[in-house]
Design brief:
Keywords: Membrane, Transmembrane, Transmembrane helix
Order of helices and strands: HHHHHH
Radius of gyration: 18 Å
Shape: globular
Pfam family, one: EamA
Largest sheet: none
InterPro entries: EamA_dom
Protein name: EamA family transporter
Number of helices: 6
Organism: Hymenobacter profundi
Length: about 140
């Protein structure tokens, strides 16, 4: 089932890139991100309330808060960088280069989460990283 949700996340991310590129055409990229961020907060907390999980907020321990806050700050930085790249470049090239994060995610998971590296993962990460770089540097498509 995680594959279905991962594919839905990927499809949603692709739609976000396209819609964001159109949306920030005539405005500063950070303003566009700020508008989206407000909507993200509203939608995210709506899900928490409608699913009946608001009481779980009280059960979050200090360590989890620290990691969630750090991840939130880094998410904002990542999005601001992505929006700026999107404003400056073509959507197909900037969004593909952004996917080099897969390589970094695997490395961080191996180092910090002690996940195992096998040959399939190594080959897949190499191919995806190489593909993202090839697309990003594919030349002007206009």
């Amino acid at each position: 089932m995680w594959i279905v949700f991962s594919l839905l996340a990927a499809l949603s991310a692709a739609a976000v890139v396209t819609l964001s590129k159109i949306g920030i055409k005539n405005i500063e990229s950070s303003v566009g991100f700020a508008v989206q961020s407000v909507l993200i907060v509203i939608v995210a907390w709506s899900f928490v309330f409608f699913q009946g999980h608001f009481s779980e907020v009280q059960r979050i321990d200090r360590r989890s808060w620290m990691f969630l806050v750090a991840a939130g700050v880094i998410t904002c930085m990542s999005s601001l960088f992505s929006f700026q790249a999107l404003k400056m470049g073509e959507a197909s090239r900037t969004s593909s280069f952004d996917k080099v994060s897969l390589v970094f995610s695997v490395i961080l998971a191996i180092v910090f989460l002690k996940e195992k590296l096998n040959w399939q993962l190594a080959v897949g990460v190499t191919l995806m990283g190489a593909g993202a770089i090839f697309i990003a540097y594919s030349g002007d498509t206009k």
